[in-house]
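Hi W., the pyridoxal-5'-phosphate complex you wanted:
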Amino acid sequence: MKQFVSDKVHDQPIVDMVFEASQGAQRAISKDGAGKVVNGAFGAFFTDGGELLTFDSVYRTFDAIPDVDKARYAASISGAPEFKRGVKQWLFTDAGVELDAEVVATPGGTGALSSTVKNVLAPGEIVVHPDIGWGPYKTIARQHQIGIEHYTLFDGQRFNLDSFQDTCRRVMKRQGKLLVFVNDPCQNPTGYTLEEDEWDRMLEILETISSQGPVVLLLDIAYIDFTHLGMAYRRRFEKLKHLGENLLTVIAFSASKTMTAYGMRVGAQVIISNNEEGRRQFKNACENTCRGIWSTVNNGGMRAFGELSLDAELKAAYTEEKRIYLKLLKDRASRFTSEADAVGLPIYPYKEGFFITLRIDDADIKNALYERLMARNIFFVNVYGGLRIAICSIPTEKLDGLARKVKETLEEIESEQQS
Ligand SMILES: Cc1ncc(COP(=O)(O)O)c(C=O)c1O
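Structure:
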């Protein structure tokens, strides 16, 4: 018998590990008070006072936008013109990078990821992801009836280039084309950032594979504004313009973290390729997706980002404000990592950004630790290969003693399992 839903859709209740852990934390806060709870579940930046961080430079710019501009549709399906110029200025021009790119506005980085998967692969084909990655990547693939192959993210303390190469080669051999996701810098959930030589080698690998068929590299840069490499990281983009004609890069830009504007739903696909016809075709496909799925993106949000990016004074105010919070994040990270080191709590190689992930290879131990910590009012997110700690949302003082507590709980579980 037919159902209301199509037999092609994914109709099971959504399991989102972040929202699950966050709800648990909220219940604990209602019961025991915020002071007694460590809420390391949610991937948004909170101040040490426990407030969601909102940059003044962003929200005063947004406030100054006339109501009629907030109310109207964007001037074009692919985004407000000043937004598109602003994205290129932000990512390339400010860093001295000259790069010819098309910009298509999307609802957040998520819109950019989803439209790319939809427009590169046909149902039944395969996308390549890191094994330790952002949970919704899977949901996005499923939305488009796309399968997944994983590369192993790490080899010891370094990016696993061999696994990246083998997985990409295998998928190219099987389907004659490749779409691969790389989330960098400040990777979610581990906080790793590729070294420049790893970045270069990754591009070389894809260049070689592209002799066998079209390759699309999806660079998910959701946390780019929180790398300590600053403009030096953006200068890596210069290398994208030397790639061959069988390669197309989509940079998935998100204003959510950049502007502390998660709910504004502003992002973009930034499309780069030396294959002009291929780039034009892909851009057309993405514009059709805009029109057919969400229409245009929040005009007020796009206008605010455009102004922030194109007005030197506003940008200077933003940069100064962000500097303070980058330092705060760094302080939080070093408190946790130095204590983790001292007590021998294993973590994946962390360099910077919103998250640190505990490394726990045994899934039973990991699940038991997740549950036991929740019972002790400590909330992390259960991810593949470990537990993600959102240091972006934990006030600095609550990080003192946290690694020790986690280590003691882990030892307790390990000794119970042995006896
Ligand atoms: C790795 C990664 N990519 C993309 C996104 C997309 O965010 P948004 O759709 O809010 O821009 C996020 C948000 O958490 C993320 O962590």
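The longest strand covers residues 247-254.

W.
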